[in-house]
What we know:
Blueprint: H1 9-16, E1 21-26, H2 36-44, E2 50-55
Amino acid sequence: xxxxxxxxxxxxxxxxxxxxxxxxxxxxxxxxxxxxxxxxxxxxxxxxxxxxxxxxxxxxxxxxxxx
Length: 67
């Protein structure tokens, strides 16, 4: 994602439709909650879907495929 607000909720729902497991890679963190994008994506997932959060690239570090 390149744009967080306005959140492209319908596009996210379409990509996740029918998925049982989803991974969200966040580059930010809301202490005590988790990644900010993860919270939004989790709310859009199908009922019963597992949405896992991974935090990487804090402080502006690049996250490359080799990482």
